[in-house]
Amino acid sequence: MDSIQDLIPHRPPFLFVDDVSVDDGIIIASYTYKPENWFFRGHFPEFPVVPGVLLVETLAQAGGAGVKLLGVPHEGIFMLAKIRSATFRRPVRPGEKLNMQIECIKASSHIIHQKGTGKVGDEVAVEAEWINIATIVDESLLKNS
Asked: Which of 12, 81, 120, 127 has a 20 to 30 Å separation from 30 between CA atoms?
């Protein structure tokens, strides 16, 4: 299996995917939010939680990695263009693992439209739908920097 960093351009401390696979067209991924993650120090420091926007980012990164595993052709790199909806059902705390399932609504070389759910255990933490568009940035330029 490819490493996550071979699939998407994100790097620590802004890489939020530990593993990703595809099962019958559904992208399955997970990420454990480590207590030392930088955002916990300032986001409700007395009761640290993952910022909602980072939960959506986590889903989108996992979706991007999954699209590569699905073999969707692409030109350049994909960047988040629109969050169509996001619902946060429970806070995600330091040390918790977000298990994700992501579905491609549309996937082409220019646009990726996905929706997904992130759970902690059996509890839904986040549900979102988003659109990524291809940029003119050549992906090979990112690997040389």
From this structure: 81
